[in-house]
Every structure is written in C-alpha cells, then in structure tokens.
Design goal:
Layout lengths: L3 H10 L3 H12 L26 H19 L10 H12 L8 H8 L14 H9 L2 E4 L3 H13 L3 E4 L8 H4 L31 H14 L6 E2 L3 E8 L4 E7 L5 E6 L1 E4 L22 E3 L13 E5 L3 H10 L5 E5 L6 E3 L9 H9 L3 H18 L17 H17 L4 H7 L11 E3 L2 H6 L4 E4 L3 E5 L2 E4 L4 E3 L2 E4 L13 E3 L6 H5 L17 E3 L13 H22 L4 E3 L1 H15 L28 H8 L7 E3 L8
Parallel strand pairs: 1-2, 1-7, 2-3, 4-18, 7-19, 8-17, 9-10, 9-17, 10-13, 11-12
Antiparallel strand pairs: 4-5, 5-6, 14-15, 15-16, 20-21
The chain binds NADP nicotinamide-adenine-dinucleotide phosphate.
Length: about 650
C-alpha cells in the first residue's frame, strides 16, 4: 500500500504553486493567506510552476496545503466559498497583475467556481420548451465547435442533426495525422470549460489523445445518434417562402438528399482545406507528394530524400519527427516563424500534478485560470501597435520590442554553435505578426542535424526529380511534403451558401469575408457561422473559449426566435458594417495588421479577415446575450403544417 502522506508530498512537489495557494484559500476559508510574498510573479514565457516564490515561501505553502488537503481527505467539510471580493483578489494574485475591473464578470464566468456550467442554456420555461420542440437545426461539422453546438442544443431541447463529411467526429484532430501533430496551447485550457480532463498525459496532448477526448465527449453527451457521418454538404439555400434552409448533401451511400431546417450552423473550421503552393512544375514531380493535412501513412520516408515546403505550425511539428528517419531533408523556408519558449511542450504531466487536479478542490479550476490569463489577454498588450512607435519596423511598440528581444535571446542560445542558422531563423517581422509556435528546442535540433538543410534561397520550380532554387541549384527529392497551410480566408468554401434573393455568399463576400461577431451576415437569415471571419485568436489563446462564447450566442439567438415567435433573425446591415469598421481599425493596430507581415490572417485583398483584434473580454461581453436591436426579426407567419 502506498503511504498517503508520501503520495501527498510527491504531489505537492509537482504543484503549480499559485494554483495551490488558491486551492488553500478555498480549503481553509482563510483570505489572510493572500499576502504580498505569495503573489505570483507574472512571466508569460516561464512555466512559472514556482510562481516566483522564494524557497521558504514555497515550502511553507506546501506544508500548509498538506495539512489542509489531509483534513479535506479525512472528510472535513469545505468552509463557505470565498466572498466575491476575495475571489477578485485571488485572480490578481494568481495572475501576478492587477486585472482590470471590467474583466471580473468575464473571468468569473470562465472560472465557474460554483460548479454550475453558466454557459449552458436554460430553456426550462414551458413556452420555450414547446417552441424548442418545433425548431430544427442543422449543424455542419462534428469537430470541436460542432460537437459543442450539439451539446448546447441538446441541453436546450432543440432538435438538431450534425452533418459530418468524415467517418468520425473530431474535425481537425481526425484529419491531421501527421507525425508529431499535437495541440500548441496547453490542454488544461484547450478543453471544454465544462469537460475538464485531469488525466491528460501531457501538457500539450498529441493528436490521438485529442481525438479520443472529443470522441469521448461526443459519446458522453449522446451526440452520435444526431450525427450523420460521411455526409458532405454541397449547398444550402434559404427558402424565403418557407423561412427554411434547404441543405443538399452527398450521402454515405453515394446518393443526394435535401434536408430542411429552421437554422443552419456551420462549424467547419478555418483550417481544413489544404492549400498547395503555386510553383511552376509542381504537377510534374514524379515521386509521392502530399500535404501535411493529408498525410500519406503508406509512404515510408525511411532512407528517402525528402523536400518539405513551408515552415509554419505544421512543419514545425512534423520535421523533428521525420528528420531522424530520412536520408536527407531539405526544408524550404520562405519566412521564419516566431518560436516562443515552451520547455514543457513535449513533457508528461507528472503523476503528482494529475493527482492534485483530480483530488484537490478548485486546484484544477485555478490552474486553468492561470493558463487562460497568462497565455491570452496577458499577452495582448505586447502585440498591440503603439501609434507613436518610432523604433525599428521589426517591432510595433516598446512591449513588442521587449518580447522580441527575449525570444530572440532564447533562439540565439540554441544556435551559439551555428551563427548561420540564427541568420536564417531570426524573424524580421514583429512578433505576433504570424502565429507564434511553441518551442522546446526540437525544431532547432532537427535543423542542426547533418542530414538536414534549411534552404532559404527561394523556390524557382519543381522538376520530376526535385526542387530548383532561385540560385539555380537543383535539389533531388524522392518525396515532396507541403506544409503550406490552408485556404483559411475562404471560410465556408467549397459549400455553396445561398441567401435571400438567390445571393451566393462567396460571391457576396468577393474574397473579403465579413460577419457580425464572426457569426451572422446580412441577407442570410438564421445562418450562424462558427470560427467565422475575425474570430481567430493569435496570441496562444484557446479557440475553444471562442467557440463557447459563439455557441452561447447562437443558442441565445435561437431563444430569441422562440421567445418572440419570429421565424427568422437577420443582422442589420448597419450593425454589421459598423462592427466591421471597428474590427478593421483595431486590426490595423495589431502586430498582425502590420504592413510588414504577410500571413494567412490576411485575405486576398490584404485585409485581416481572420483575427479578433480586441481583448477576449470584449468578445465575451458581446456574446453573452444577443441584442435584439441588432437584428431584423422576420414577421410571424401562421404555420400551415
Ligand atoms: P501556415 O502556418 O500557413 O504555414 C505555411 C507555410 O508554408 C509558411 O511557412 C509559408 O511561408 C509556407 N509557404 C506557403 N506557400 C509557399 C510557397 N509557395 N513557397 C514557399 N513556402 C510557402 O500553415 P500550417 O503550418 O499548416 O499552419 C496553419 C495554422 O494551423 C497555424 O497557424 C495554426 O493556427 C494551425 N495549426 C495548429 C497546430 C497546433 O495547434 N498544433 C498545428 C498545425 C497548424 P510564409 O510564412 O512566407 O507564407
């Protein structure tokens, strides 16, 4: 038998101390524990397990926690929950900064200390219940956000069907099976707020673990009976006479079918239509060639000469995995990515930490909160452009320049022996301009291998046997792998979405997709887009947070229909346009809006169509409940059967 005291000591040795302090306040009810020396030090680039505490403070905290946890395990009841003003102080303490007052409601909702899933809909009122039963919703996609929509609609009692082109749920985690694929923000935050998993084996889980998580959530919430797999949406047309969406699908058995619903929710992601580079001679290549998101497991790379085009998030993950296997690897880099130090990127979550997450009340909630604050809005100011900045164009302000210096220093430390690599790896654009990647050293280690070359000469053409660079050199290759990203700014493409007056959404967008809060667009009643225009977050936040906000809003919009009896809801053009003008102005003030940056965040006309430019709190505030004044509500019609 294991000694419980030793188990506890071992667990406490692994503790995230700021989260432990918060748990201790809950366990003891003693707000006086919040003394200055126990305030965590804010450092977004450090794992900060110790919170910057002195060894004495850390030891004292562990000893107090041990006693309190022991008492709790022995059956002592929890004291009354901390008062709201204490919780507010606790937030500042764990964050290591004075969090602005306007964040309180938002962060309280995110923390969910009461154990109530505050984002779950409540349609218990009989009139609403009856109205819910008369609605039908079609959701396109059974990935992270489609499953979430299903969960919320089920809770609301609204009948729904999820259409999924793949053979199983999981979306991006079903499709991306390249070696090394894993989430690049911490899992204890990259998970539904209402479905924590204390057993994630690693801080940043691998693709199979994530797929398993989402599939288990689908099972737990009984979603499978609502999902039609291998069913691809071809087009959705709004039938104005009937106020219904008619959705035509290719079915699993090769047929075509039209389904009808009151509302259509698209949950198709931004990053699942592979983009192949437009390079002369590409189609002439003789060997196997494939995109990272369509990984060919049947192609054995062992002993082959492999060419990888692109050095974005995907290549950053698969290159270190394939480098030891191949005979030779040429990596063609156009622009270097920003590598943010993340020493725990490939680390297992120690057993002690898992134990604390599973056994100590509130520890997991505060740990998630710490990640949430530190990695999202905590970073926000550092990627904001200072309009008065007159420093070098590789930064957009003083805070941005300081972060840059810190990250370049970390990069430099990795290549002291290879100054040629530093020259190639140091980005010349502002940090935050493109998605920064989590770096634990494996990327640079792969680049340093004798069988790996990082080529920055630029690609001139592709021949049947290799890649010709602009310096005229031909580099032989047996296999070509594209890590060249996705058609992000085309959003719902290749689905055809037709709204009022037969207007096609892609045509209306004309290469410049826009929506109100990313979700609704004029002329397309009862169409709701998840992960739509300008809802992407850049500085490492969890996109699950955004989806949770959006889905709450969408279910709120359906509730508005149920409450008013209106058949449709359509955003007012003036509201939509004013919102987009604000978004554009704000994006121009962010690192990713800098004219020095090209990335998938910008569309064909150069507008940032992907990113949310404001703090997360603003999206939360805007999406708690839809404002009826933002919409044109359709006139009630007498239902004819
Ligand atoms: P990406 O970030 O768009 O990177 C594409 C890469 O291909 C870039 O290095 C780009 O260079 C290069 N490229 C494109 N066309 C080229 C051409 N014609 N010639 C030479 N190089 C070319 O794509 P990704 O790596 O697949 O990642 C896309 C997004 O997916 C990420 O930003 C992230 O949001 C998400 N993602 C997340 C994870 C994760 O969470 N674990 C993993 C993978 C992807 P330029 O920079 O010069 O354009």
């Amino acid at each position: 038998m294991t000694d419980p005291s030793a188990t506890l000591d071992a667990a406490l040795a692994e503790a995230h101390l700021p989260a432990l302090l918060m748990a201790l306040v809950h366990l003891t009810g003693d707000a006086a524990l919040l003394t200055e020396e126990r305030r965590a030090v804010y450092d977004p680039l450090a794992e900060a397990r110790l919170g910057g505490y002195s060894p004495e403070v850390a030891a004292d905290l562990r000893a107090r926690a041990k006693a309190a946890i022991q008492k709790h395990l022995d059956g002592a009841p929890l004291p009354a929950p901390p008062a709201p003003e204490t919780v507010r102080r606790m937030m500042d303490f764990i964050a290591g900064v004075d969090i602005p007052a306007n964040y309180a409601a938002f962060l309280t909702d995110e923390l969910q200390l009461t154990g109530v899933d505050t984002k779950a809909p409540d349609w218990s009122e009989p009139k609403l219940k009856a109205a819910a039963g008369r609605m039908t919703v079609i959701v396109v996609g059974a990935g992270m956000s489609g499953l979430l929509t299903g969960i919320r609609l089920k809770q609301a009692g609204v009948p729904f069907t999820i259409l999924e082109k793949n053979a199983d749920a999981g979306g991006t985690w079903f499709e991306n099976v390249y070696p090394g694929c894993r989430v690049d923000n911490p899992n204890h935050m990259y998970s539904y707020s209402f479905e924590p998993n204390h057993d994630f084996p690693q801080y940043y889980s691998t693709q199979p673990v994530l797929l398993d998580y989402f599939c288990k959530v689908a099972d737990k919430h009984g979603l499978r009976e609502h999902i039609r797999f291998e069913t691809t949406v071809e087009e959705a047309v709004f039938d104005e006479a009937a106020n219904r969406w008619r959705v035509t699908v290719h079915t699993k058995d090769g047929g075509r079918e039209t389904l009808v619903a009151n509302a259509l929710v698209t949950a198709v992601g931004q990053l699942n239509r592979p983009r192949y580079p437009d390079i002369e001679g590409l189609e002439t290549f003789d060997g196997p060639s494939f995109h990272s998101a369509r990984w060919r497991k049947d192609v054995d790379l062992t002993g082959k000469r492999v060419a990888v085009i692109g050095t974005g998030a995907s290549a950053f993950q698969f290159v270190p995995e394939i480098a030891p296997k191949v005979a030779h690897l040429d990596i063609y880099q156009r622009t270097p990515p920003w590598p943010l130090p993340g020493p725990t990127y490939h680390d297992d979550v120690p057993e002690g930490k898992k134990w604390l997450l599973g056994h100590v009340p509130f520890y997991g909630k505060w740990y998630r909160f710490w990640l949430f604050w530190t990695l999202t809005d905590g970073f926000y100011e550092a990627v904001k452009a200072d309009p008065d900045w007159n420093g070098p164009p590789e930064a957009v302000g003083q805070a941005n320049a300081e972060l840059r210096a810190q990250v370049v220093e970390a990069l430099r430390a990795q290549v002291v022996d290879r100054p040629d690599l530093l020259e190639k790896l140091e980005p010349r654009y502002p940090i935050g301009g493109k998605r920064a990647l989590v770096d634990n050293g494996v990327w640079v280690n792969a680049l340093k291998r004798d069988n790996v070359d990082l080529n920055t000469a630029g690609i001139a053409s592709i021949t049947p046997t290799g890649v010709v660079t602009r310096d005229g050199v031909e580099h032989p290759a047996d296999v070509l792998i594209f890590g060249t990203g996705f058609h992000a700014s085309r959003f719902l493409w290749p689905m055809k979405i037709v709204g009022r007056g037969g207007v096609d959404l892609e045509t209306a967008w004309n290469g410049d997709a826009r929506a109100y809060l990313g979700m609704t667009t004029p002329g397309f009643p009862n169409l709701f887009i998840l992960y739509g225009p300008n809802t992407n977050i850049v500085v490492n936040g969890s996109i699950i947070f955004f989806s949770e906000c959006s889905v709450r809003y969408i279910v709120g919009a359906l509730k508005l229909l149920a409450q008013t009896g209106a058949p449709t809801l359509e955003v007012k053009k003036a509201v939509h346009d004013a919102f987009n003008a604000k978004v554009d102005a704000a994006n121009a003030q962010m690192a990713w809006g800098s004219p020095n940056v090209t990335s998938w965040y910008k569309n064909a006309v150069g507008r940032v169509s992907q990113n949310w430019p404001f703090p997360l709190v603003d999206y939360w505030n805007a999406t708690v409940t839809p404002n009826p004044d933002d919409f044109i509500l359709g006139a009630k019609v007498k239902e004819t059967a």
